[in-house]
Here is the input.
Amino acid sequence: MENIFAKRMDNVPSSFISEILKLIDDTEIISFAGGLPNKDLFPVKEIRNAANYQLENYGTEILQYSTTEGYLPLREFIAERYNKNKNLNISAENVLITHGSQQALDLIGKVFLNDNDAVAIEEPGYLGAIQCLSIFSKNFVPIKLENDGLNLEELHIAYENFSPKIIYTVPNFQNPTGISYSFEKRNKIVDLLKSYNTFIIEDDPYGELRYEDEEIESFGKLLPEQTILLGSFSKIVAPGFRIGWLIAPDKIMDKFVIAKQAADLHSNYVGQRIIYQYLKDTDLDKHILDIKATYNSQRLTMIESIERYFPKSVEFTKPNGGMFLWVTLPKNISAVNLLNHSIEKKVAFVPGDPFYVKKSDVNTLRLNYSCSDEKTIEEGIKRLAICIKELIK
Ligand SMILES: Cc1ncc(COP(=O)(O)O)c(C=O)c1O
Here is the structure.
């Protein structure tokens, strides 16, 4: 099989998380490793009603091929929601429905990246973006993510020295750290990017899962001409639909439509129609409030348990939204090593390694709180604390 595969597949990281999930396919394990939304919150009944309604009334129509851009009323719904909730000025023509926001990343790679083009990315960054974009270029320029957003000095150096065509960011409740960019940092980033021939990818699947504080203006508002905004129904309705979207300025929209057409003609039309019917019949805001109520108490339990049980030398983020928090162990403690110990105590998490493009055997790790109830979270953190203490001494 030597020399049969394309060069672009060389050294593409495999999904570390699915490897871990396989390893811990044990129902007794308390897992903070996944990144899934809580299935108990999926609106099964409402989706069933929406599916029945669409099939009964529009059966032959929704089973037919459709347009590459996506179902227009759904695109209008998405644009109007941004305009109403985030004070943006988006028109449905600038919304492309994608197969999850993950496909949007693939299209971005296809539209922008030649082999070895520079891509700036948060460090640590979303591993799905690292995996997807590395198929197109492995020339990542990591920019340190601080508690209020990207490190500006590193950003400046990256643009002066490497001219990245795109910079990939998750400014709200980032995966993996839970960090959000402050308003001040966003403005400084905008000031810097304005003078370069570049696009900022604003990947925002968690923005609606805010438990505290006010909404912060998005890059889509602050720098619309250079922002590609990604969104998804995965975390606010259900990921099984695989319906997300990409919003881009007029001047580059055509390229995305062509790339999408070449990839799959269009996203699953039945799914788009069902989700649209669901959005018409139900109160999405109320549904999101229910999700937030559950995740927020899980989040608070995780924070309180860490404060109570972890040694004080361990640092962690206290995100005010999303599904994750990020732990930094004392310098010489390897998170992979900790995982080996913690699996024996039947608790799992994702070590930081796959979230870095240029580092390994790091002392950081990601914890997910969306899928465990409060009692389980406290028990899991207690066990993890025992393992950490064993390694520290
Ligand atoms: C930051 C980020 N972007 C994109 C995705 C992919 O989401 P989707 O289900 O919309 O493809 C995820 C999924 O976890 C994510 O965390």
User: Anything to note?
Assistant: The pocket of pyridoxal-5'-phosphate is lined by residues 35, 100-102, 126, 128, 170, 175, 203, 205, 232, 234, 239, 244 (CB under 6 Å).
